[in-house]
Fold this protein.
Amino acid sequence: WWVRIYIVHALCELKNPVSMLFILDTLPGSPAWYRTKVFGLTSEFGIHILNVVLPLRRSTAKEDVLFAIHYAEINPADEFLPFLQEKTSDADPEISIGALRTLLRRYMHRIDIWDYLSSQNTDIARLAVAALEDSPTEDNVNALIWFVRDHRLGIRAIDSLTKIAFASPRFYQYLFERFSAETNPIVRSGIAAALSCRGLAKEASMVA
């Protein structure tokens, strides 16, 4: 495989999009480390290989699909959106999680995140919960507070609330207000845990 890496590196140096046809032929059956190297080496081709990558959406080879997912993150294009949404339901977790990561990072404004927050696949739902912290709006914070009571997603939601509270004075104050008004003991405990990142746990416990 290292010999192939050297060849791929030399082909990338030529910056000829036609060479991608050979490079892609080396992916099936390749180990994960090899694919990672190829992803990095070929990233500089950018949109010049879009027409070469698009057919990979219909491939049945895992390595081809993963390459398309990686490319769609580096070079977002409308053509990849239905493909990525479909692959979030793939039976292979490397594909489904990879597709959702790309959607959340580069296509967030084009999807309904609740489709994934409500997923019965715990890994998918946890990843969607974590994405809420990247856009700390009041609606997203309220959603995280709601998920604190979920036995599958509670810990992930508290972790996200903790990061938001630490980074935003506005939202740690909002969380403290929500804590004061909350009656559910599980949710109160979760909010208190998030507030503790700024030393507010003692104050919260006094209000309790």
Notes: The longest helix spans residues 93-106. The chain has a mean pLDDT of 91.
